[in-house]
């Protein structure tokens, strides 16, 4: 089934309901949302786009993102959303790898992509082609698609090489959407989803469920993340749901405490995409109240591996509440999750190993990459590359990517464990721990710190809380940690930085 049918159904049922906003201005009711998608779908069909073809979106967050996305699906094509922070050459590689013959581009991104000599035909928002598409005769019928047909081709961040295309099917998006209702929150027509994080990734992956229930879609005029703007829009709309990276949650808390904002109107903030440290989420809950839910997923199983409920994020009465808060929750309804050893065999509760997942929200494979598929999909299981453990109650604690684990003197050291300790110091605002090659021990632990805490105090803190072999041998002080567009710390960059840095060990 084509997931675009969800928009058609909502438009038929509630055509006059307000659907899409730019700031506080309604730019489309559901009748208009459906009509615009139909016209774009009709235009794509007239350009020769066939079901199964790939169409790129190199767009900033905007109402046009939704109109184009559903137009692509109405025509039966697969969307290729591209991170709008990428360089034009990087976007061009994705379009080439995907075999996309056409790409919609925001006006201020068009020059960069054009300069990359991309083969795909570019349609810039507001140009003659786009104007023609918006005025074209509507598609006569939404293309029929099978549940396992390609719907969304998602490209990984490429931190360890060229990005890979994750094949996301119509079935996967439906399963992920319905799991939102069962495992995360319950969305309804009275709600609004606020797109403050990139629509090419997590935030956009929740649009379908909100379309199905007839909720309001709100695009901030800034096109991205601005704390003050979020608070203003939340007060205006009320019952706002949004997706945020942990760094965004931390910034919202800091801004709210500094300006007296209470988060009025924010109903639910789903956070994921990086480590959320206990100190940060405790501070956020103390200020905003019980509005937070955590999920864990990957592009290969988008938004769909585990969830930590609003109750678990807020509860302080359970004897294991701190451990649960540090976890990423329990398996979502549509998947099985287990911890596997080096051979993939299941490990007992509490044992450390690789997190594995299988179910209807797991990808069928990478786009035209059989070598990567053979390494990642084994006997029906997705090998996530993430290391962690599951307790006896089913709560999964994510420690680090397998490539981020530090092996020093034959002992495994999980950076997050060290980071959690360092962040308890009041003069540490951010920290990231990485390994650096050492001639005797194999690797040594290096802490990259943002803050004014003294090395001696941090070293004492570690000696008082964790095994001596885990403590950092070097502290590197930075003004800020390098992050990508989604707030993830770029540990690859930090490893390169500390490899060149040779400060005296404390």
Describe what you observe in this structure:
The protein has 18 helices and 25 strands. It starts with a helix and ends in a 6-residue tail after the last helix. The protein is globular, with a radius of gyration of 23 Å. It is α/β, with parallel strands linked by helices. The longest helix has 17 residues, at 30-46.
Supply database-style keywords.
single chain, about 500 residues, GMP Synthetase, Chain A, domain 3, nine-stranded mixed beta sheet, five-stranded antiparallel beta sheet, 25 strands, globular
Name of the CATH homologous superfamily of the largest domain: ANL, N-terminal domain
Mean pLDDT: 93
Return the CATH class of the largest domain. Alpha Beta
**Low-confidence residue ranges:** none
Q: Percent of residues in helical segments?
A: 25-40%
Rg from alpha-carbon coordinates:
23 Å
Short recap of the structure:
The chain is of the alpha/beta class. The N and C termini lie far apart (61 Å).
List the helices and strands and how they pair.
Layout: H1 5-13, E1 18-22, E2 25-29, H2 30-46, E3 54-58, H3 63-74, E4 78-81, H4 88-98, E5 102-105, H5 107-115, E6 121-124, H6 128-135, E7 150-155, E8 165-169, H7 170-184, E9 192-194, H8 202-205, H9 207-212, E10 216-219, H10 227-237, E11 240-244, H11 246-259, E12 266-271, H12 278-288, E13 292-298, E14 301-308, H13 310-314, H14 321-326, E15 330-331, E16 335-340, E17 353-359, H15 370-376, E18 377-378, E19 381-390, E20 396-401, E21 406-408, E22 411-413, H16 415-422, E23 428-438, E24 442-451, H17 455-465, E25 474-477, H18 491-500
Parallel strand pairs: 1-10, 3-4, 3-5, 5-6, 9-10, 9-11, 11-12, 12-13, 24-25
Antiparallel strand pairs: 1-2, 7-8, 13-14, 14-15, 16-17, 17-19, 18-19, 19-20, 21-22, 23-24
Helix pairs in contact: 1-2, 2-3, 2-6, 4-5, 11-12
């Amino acid at each position: 089934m084509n997931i675009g049918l969800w928009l058609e159904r909502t438009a038929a049922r509630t055509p006059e309901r307000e659907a899409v906003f730019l700031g506080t201005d309604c730019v489309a009711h559901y009748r208009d949302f459906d009509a615009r998608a139909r016209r774009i779908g009709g235009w794509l069909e007239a350009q020769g786009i066939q079901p199964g073809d790939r169409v790129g979106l190199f767009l900033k967050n905007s109402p046009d993102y939704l109109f184009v996305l559903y137009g692509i699906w109405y025509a039966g094509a697969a969307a290729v959303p591209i991170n709008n922070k990428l360089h034009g050459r990087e976007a061009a590689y994705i379009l080439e790898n995907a075999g996309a013959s056409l790409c919609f581009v925001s006006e201020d991104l068009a020059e960069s992509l054009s300069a990359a000599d991309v083969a795909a035909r570019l349609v810039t928002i507001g140009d003659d082609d786009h104007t023609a598409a918006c005025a074209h005769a509507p598609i006569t019928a939404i293309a029929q698609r099978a549940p396992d047909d390609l719907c969304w081709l998602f490209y990984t961040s490429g931190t360890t090489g060229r990005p890979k295309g994750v094949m996301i099917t119509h079935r996967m998006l439906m399963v992920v959407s319905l799991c939102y209702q069962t495992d995360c929150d319950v969305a309804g027509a009275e709600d609004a989803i606020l797109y403050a994080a990139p629509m090419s990734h997590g935030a956009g992956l929740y649009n379908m469920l909100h379309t199905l229930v007839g909720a309001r879609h709100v695009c901030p005029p800034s096109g991205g993340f601005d704390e003050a703007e979020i608070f203003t829009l939340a007060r205006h709309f009320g019952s706002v749901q949004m997706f945020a990276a942990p760094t965004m949650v931390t910034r919202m808390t800091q801004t709210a405490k500094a300006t007296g904002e209470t988060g009025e109107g924010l109903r639910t903030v789903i956070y994921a995409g990086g480590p959320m440290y206990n100190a940060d989420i405790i501070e956020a809950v103390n200020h905003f109240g019980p509005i937070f839910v955590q999920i864990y997923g990957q592009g290969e199983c988008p938004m769909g591996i585990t969830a930590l409920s609003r109750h678990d994020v807020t509860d302080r009465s359970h004897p294991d509440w701190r451990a649960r808060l540090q976890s990423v929750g329990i398996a979502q309804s549509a998947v099985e999750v287990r911890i596997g050893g080096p051979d993939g065999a299941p490990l007992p509760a509490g044992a450390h190993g690789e997190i594995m997942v299988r179910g209807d929200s797991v990808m069928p494979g990478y786009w035209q990459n059989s070598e990567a598929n053979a390494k990642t999909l084994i006997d029906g299981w997705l090998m996530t590359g993430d290391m962690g453990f599951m307790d006896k109650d089913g709560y999964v604690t994510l420690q680090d990517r397998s490539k981020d684990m530090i092996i020093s003197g034959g002992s495994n050291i999980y950076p997050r464990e060290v980071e959690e300790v360092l962040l308890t110091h009041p003069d540490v605002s951010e920290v990231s721990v990485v390994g650096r090659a050492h001639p005797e021990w194999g690797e040594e632990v290096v802490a990259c710190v943002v803050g004014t805490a003294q090395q001696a105090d941090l070293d004492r803190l570690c000696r008082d809380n964790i095994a001596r072999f885990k403590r950092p041998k070097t502290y590197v002080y930075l003004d800020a940690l390098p992050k990508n567009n989604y707030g993830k710390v770029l540990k690859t960059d930090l490893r390169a930085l500390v490899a060149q840095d040779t400060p005296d060990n404390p």
